[in-house]
């Protein structure tokens, strides 16, 4: 065990006011469009969407309606994530009508709970005698975790305990079923989630047994003989036939977690597990767990992650594959996986403040997370490709999961409410504090109040980041006070400038782990001006990434860019960027509600071909063209067509 005294705490969502052009738009969208829209979807009121039936499932389980269960075994989690998003939204935008709707659905959820505390509509309606008999596939603990998270968020927003108390009863019951004590099952979830939820429940109630239960699930995972295999034998099944090639790696149950050094299997499950491991490590100071988290983190970000922060290279098992296998067109990169990567990064950041973590958190947020939602908030991507050829998506089996347009809803609707809860809670990712230190991880216009040894310090950010490179940070406090304000200097920025009350300071001298540490006696009205020059960067991939050799991607600030057919014509693969070509960043007020674009001089392959498939002695010819790049997150919001992030360079 190691001292955990140096671990930081994030400033909660409720205490961070956001008034930001970029994220404020998303937060407003979640409140005004996404939450009402998803409520309609959960109630099966969207005409062109796949049915959900989740509210009806809860009503049937509660005895308020007659009928059969419909949907996946994890259907309950869609409502839970919606409710969690409502909690986060109410943190900053009180809305009595929405709160009333949430109270009403909470009444139904609690009515669906069994006397012993068990809650799961699938098993309650269909086969209560089979509960806990197939942890590998049936998602009971996963759904439990999501409702626990919803309960915590709703309690923190409103102070209402009804769902929280119900979820404590559920956790108490789960604690009687699972553990190492005689008579208990030595199981753990096939889809991780409850681990991080139990830590949240522990933090809000102070009940140690929830932390112990979370630690149990993590410690037990992957031990031999394997629980999932034993459980399958008891059901009369031999092995996991569905994920034969992945085996137990699919569930991250191939090894005890402390022996796992590479990110394996289903990518959402993986990053949820790692987030739970990090949470337990933060609460216990367990060095072996911290080391395991660091190894897994390094493996992901140095060998298994897309430039957008997407993870999961294949649709088979929605999983990680192997180092440097990052195809752009058969990619999976589920929206939920990038959201999970944000969770993991945020937790690592509290253990060890370093821009290694916050840069990746930012990368995922500004690219692969928000590419999952349309600009109008009504359509969603499950898979986030880096290259799209519509005919291939239509006709090729191996690319059929790569959609050219976002969908209204999914039968398996994990991603849409997951984005909603993340966007509604973006405030909690901005600041952390520890003793006399205030850390700023993200630059988002707004303000917060932070307590430093009994002094209240108000921090206000004024910025148009990520469109603009300037951030003004003002400090308000009653009496002068010595403390450190630490500002993240993103890894993509070479020449950051900082002035305090107009006096420039040497940034290099202040840098600790990628953060400028400004330690001084602060006075009311002090102003820090941070300038993060956003040059357009031509990013290359490691040469082992076969898909990207000889190619380049453009990035400005945290935003990765792409080409779309609607701006650049068909056959985007013919476009070539010379390393000398001029690149110009501009803000286009008229495009997609106002977005930054990059206009570039490029070339298009233009050699004469007359129907031959193969030919010798071809003289490569190119004609000059002007091309327009848009932010990756904004693609697929106009006429559907081709899209490409990595462009050939010569
Ligand atoms: Zn998902």
Q: Briefly, what is this?
A:
The chain is 36% helix and 18% strand. With 650 residues, the protein is α+β, with helices and mostly antiparallel strands.
What layout of secondary structure does this protein have?
Blueprint: E1 9-10, E2 16-18, H1 21-42, H2 54-61, H3 76-92, H4 96-111, H5 121-126, H6 135-138, H7 140-158, H8 162-177, H9 194-205, H10 208-220, H11 227-234, H12 267-284, H13 287-303, H14 335-351, H15 355-369, E3 387-388, H16 390-395, H17 415-424, E4 431-434, E5 437-440, E6 446-452, E7 455-463, E8 470-476, E9 481-488, E10 497-500, E11 503-505, H18 507-510, E12 511-512, E13 515-522, E14 526-531, E15 536-539, E16 551-556, E17 559-564, H19 565-568, E18 575-577, E19 583-588, E20 595-605, E21 622-631, E22 643-644, E23 647-649
Parallel strand pairs: 5-9, 18-23
Antiparallel strand pairs: 1-4, 2-6, 3-22, 4-5, 6-7, 7-8, 8-14, 9-13, 10-11, 10-14, 12-13, 15-16, 16-17, 16-23, 17-21, 17-22, 18-20, 19-20, 20-21
Bound molecules: zinc ion (ZN).
Zinc ion binds at residues 334-336, 382, 414-415, 418.
């Amino acid at each position: 065990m190691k001292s955990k005294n140096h671990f930081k705490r994030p400033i909660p969502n409720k205490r961070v006011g956001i008034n930001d052009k970029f994220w404020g738009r998303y937060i407003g969208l979640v409140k005004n469009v996404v939450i009402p829209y998803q409520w309609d979807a959960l109630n099966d009121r969207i005409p062109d969407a796949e049915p959900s039936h989740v509210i009806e499932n809860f009503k049937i389980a509660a005895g308020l309606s007659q009928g059969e269960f419909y949907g996946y075994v994890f259907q309950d989690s869609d409502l839970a994530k919606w409710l969690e998003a409502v909690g986060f939204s109410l943190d900053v935008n009180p809305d009595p009508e929405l709160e009333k709707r949430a109270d009403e659905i909470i009444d139904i959820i609690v009515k669906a709970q069994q006397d012993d505390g068990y809650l799961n509509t699938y098993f309650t309606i269909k086969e209560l005698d089979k509960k806990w008999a197939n942890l590998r596939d049936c998602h009971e603990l996963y759904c439990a975790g999501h409702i626990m998270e919803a309960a915590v968020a709703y309690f923190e927003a409103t102070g209402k305990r009804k769902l929280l108390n119900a979820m404590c009863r559920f956790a108490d019951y789960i604690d009687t079923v699972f553990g190492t004590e005689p008579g208990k099952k030595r199981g753990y979830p096939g889809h991780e989630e409850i681990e991080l939820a139990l830590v949240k429940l522990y933090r809000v109630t102070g009940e140690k047994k929830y932390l112990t239960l979370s630690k149990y699930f993590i410690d037990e995972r992957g031990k031999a003989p394997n629980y999932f295999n034993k459980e399958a034998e008891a059901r009369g099944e031999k092995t996991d036939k569905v994920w034969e090639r992945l085996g137990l790696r699919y569930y991250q149950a191939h090894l005890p977690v402390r022996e796992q050094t590479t990110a394996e299997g289903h990518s959402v499950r993986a990053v949820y597990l790692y987030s739970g491991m990090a949470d337990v490590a933060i609460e216990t100071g367990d060095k072996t767990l911290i080391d395991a988290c660091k190894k897994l983190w390094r493996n992901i970000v140095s060998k298994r992650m897309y430039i957008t922060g997407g993870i999961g290279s294949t649709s088979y098992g929605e999983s990680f594959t192997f180092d440097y296998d990052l195809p752009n067109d058969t990619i999976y990169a589920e929206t939920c996986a990038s959201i999970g990567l944000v969770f993991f990064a945020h937790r690592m950041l509290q253990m060890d403040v370093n821009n290694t973590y916050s840069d990746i958190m930012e990368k995922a947020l500004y690219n692969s997370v928000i590419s999952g939602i349309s600009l109008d908030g009504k359509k969603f991507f499950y898979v986030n490709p880096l290259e799209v050829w519509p005919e291939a998506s239509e006709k090729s089996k191996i690319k059929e999961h790569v959609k050219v347009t976002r969908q209204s809803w999914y039968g398996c609707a994990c991603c849409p409410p997951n984005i909603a809860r993340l966007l509604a809670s973006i405030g909690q990712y901005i600041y952390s504090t520890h003793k006399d230190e205030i850390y700023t991880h993200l630059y988002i216009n707004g303000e917060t109040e932070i307590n430093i040894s009994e002094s209240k310090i108000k921090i206000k950010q004024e910025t148009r980041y990520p469109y603009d490179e300037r951030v003004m940070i003002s400090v308000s406090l009653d009496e002068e006070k010595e403390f450190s304000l630490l500002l993240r200097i993103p890894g993509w920025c070479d020449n950051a400038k900082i002035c305090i009350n107009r006096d420039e300071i040497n940034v290099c001298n202040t840098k600790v782990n990628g953060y400028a540490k400004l330690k001084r006696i602060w006075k009311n009205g002090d102003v820090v001006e941070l300038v993060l020059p956003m040059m357009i960067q031509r990013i290359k991939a490691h040469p082992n990434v076969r898909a990207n050799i000889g190619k380049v991607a453009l990035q400005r600030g945290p935003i990765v860019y792409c080409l779309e057919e609607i701006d650049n014509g068909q056959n985007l693969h013919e476009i070539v960027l010379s390393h000398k070509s001029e690149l110009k960043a501009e803000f286009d007020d008229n495009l997609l509600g106002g977005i930054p674009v990059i206009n570039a001089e490029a070339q298009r392959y233009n050699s004469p071909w007359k129907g031959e498939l193969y030919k010798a002695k071809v003289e490569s010819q190119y004609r000059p063209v002007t091309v327009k790049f848009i932010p990756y997150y904004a693609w697929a919001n106009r006429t559907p067509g081709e899209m490409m992030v990595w462009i050939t360079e010569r």
